[in-house]
From TrEMBL:
It comes from Neptunomonas phycophila. Pfam families: HATPase_c (PF02518), HisKA (PF00512). Keywords: ATP-binding, Kinase, Nitrogen fixation, Nucleotide-binding, Phosphoprotein, Transferase, Two-component regulatory system. Its EC number is 2.7.13.3. NCBIfam families: PRK11073.1 (NF008293), sensory_box (TIGR00229). This is Sensory histidine kinase/phosphatase NtrB. It catalyses: ATP + protein L-histidine = ADP + protein N-phospho-L-histidine. It is an enzyme of class 2 (transferase). Member of the two-component regulatory system NtrB/NtrC, which controls expression of the nitrogen-regulated (ntr) genes in response to nitrogen limitation. Under conditions of nitrogen limitation, NtrB autophosphorylates and transfers the phosphoryl group to NtrC. In the presence of nitrogen, acts as a phosphatase that dephosphorylates and inactivates NtrC.
């Protein structure tokens, strides 16, 4: 009995999806990892045909049926599975026949390629962003030091000039030095210690929507698809407002400049379990999607949108998205972006189990 329970516990704690089919290709068992992958419970899928969740390819179904009689195992690479919500998932899977008391079962082991590719992409994004931030910080500090000297020298020079008409030129030097200093401060991003408190993500979004709605004079429709079950987490409310404001304001400006008809920004929140961000796995994560129906981000810019000074707008500073990524990174989270004409989505992932000492 102990061994049986241990085997079941091992199966239920595997990150690999495991499914057991009977001779008629109906589900006998699936572990929690498989339920998460297919976004449906074993109880629900047990009444479904295999075509509804594995493959609609009749040749593949015939191979499964022949495996029951032939007993030959096989493997498929980069196959496409269909989740119950209609999403297509890229996976590797192996089918192994099992004979139990003269009855043949098919054991299917599934490795999600999408998840592995996503982890690699996230690790690369985090590494690139951290490298860029360190480079920018080093350059910014090197720039600030001589700027202070230039400004101070201009002030001293102004005091020595008897001709008041020449003060116009020293004021230009002082104002331009101040402008450059402000730009450098923005490049450095948030420099205050985070003010940690319980954060309600929906309160943050409501505040941002109010601000943006005033700016756009009600010309953009906001669609709110909130998950009320998302709990509060420890974070800096003001910084998270700033991060979301930067993204939503960018979307607003893109919609206005492109004169998109029926301009719309959708805000969607969901709680997701067992999510890996970079190299760290989190038990529970808040996923916030900010989606607009604007013209989209040019393909050549898509991989660089979080770099400082990268902007698709002539008057844009290119700092908003970089600062937003830094703020979410401080909360051990990550922002991803996907875009095509008519649909641009920024996805913010923020762990919900953060403690005070976790936010940096």
């Amino acid at each position: 009995m102990f061994r049986k329970q241990t085997h079941k516990q091992i199966l239920e704690n595997l990150s690999t999806s495991v499914i057991l089919l009977d001779e008629s290709l109906q589900i006998e068992y699936m572990n929690p990892a498989a339920e998460m992958l297919l976004e449906a419970t074993a109880k629900r899928l047990s009444t479904c045909n295999v075509e509804e969740w594995l493959t609609q390819d009749p040749d593949e179904i015939n191979v499964l049926k022949s495996t029951v009689t032939s007993g030959h195992a096989y493997t498929r690479r980069e196959a496409k599975l269909i989740a119950m919500n209609g999403n297509e998932i890229t996976v590797d899977y192996s089918v192994n026949p099992m004979l139990v008391r003269d009855v043949t079962f098919l054991l299917i082991e599934i490795q999600a390629r999408d998840r592995l590719l996503r982890i690699e992409r996230e690790e690369e994004l985090l590494t690139r962003h951290a490298t860029t931030r360190n480079l920018v910080r080093g350059m910014a500090h090197e720039i600030k030091n001589p700027l202070g000297g230039i400004r101070g020298a201009a002030q001293l020079l102004e005091r020595e000039l008897d001709d008041v008409g020449l003060h116009e030129y020293t004021q230009i030097i002082i104002e331009e030095a101040d402008r450059l200093r402000n730009l450098v401060d923005r490049l450095l991003g948030p420099h205050k210690l985070p003010k940690l408190e319980p954060v309600n993500i929906h309160a943050v979004l409501e505040r941002v929507c109010t601000l943006v709605d005033v700016e756009c004079e009600g010309q953009i429709q906001f669609v709110k698809d909130y998950d009320p079950s998302i709990p509060e987490f420890i974070g800096d409310t003001e910084q998270l407002i700033q991060a979301n404001l930067n993204i939503i304001r960018n979307a607003m400006q893109a919609l206005q400049e492109s004169h998109t008809p029926d301009a719309c920004i959708t805000l969607k929140t969901r709680a997701k379990r067992q999510v890996t961000l970079g190299s760290e796995r989190h038990r529970l994560v808040c996923c916030l999607d900010i989606i607009d129906n604007g013209p989209g981000i040019p393909a050549e810019m898509l991989n660089n949108v979080f770099y400082p000074m990268i902007s698709g707008r002539a008057e844009g500073s290119g700092l908003g998205l970089s600062i937003a990524q830094s703020i979410v990174n401080q909360h051990h989270g990550l922002i991803e972006c996907s875009s095509e004409p008519g649909r641009t989505r920024f996805s913010l992932y923020i762990p919900l189990e953060l403690r005070n000492e976790d936010v940096r």
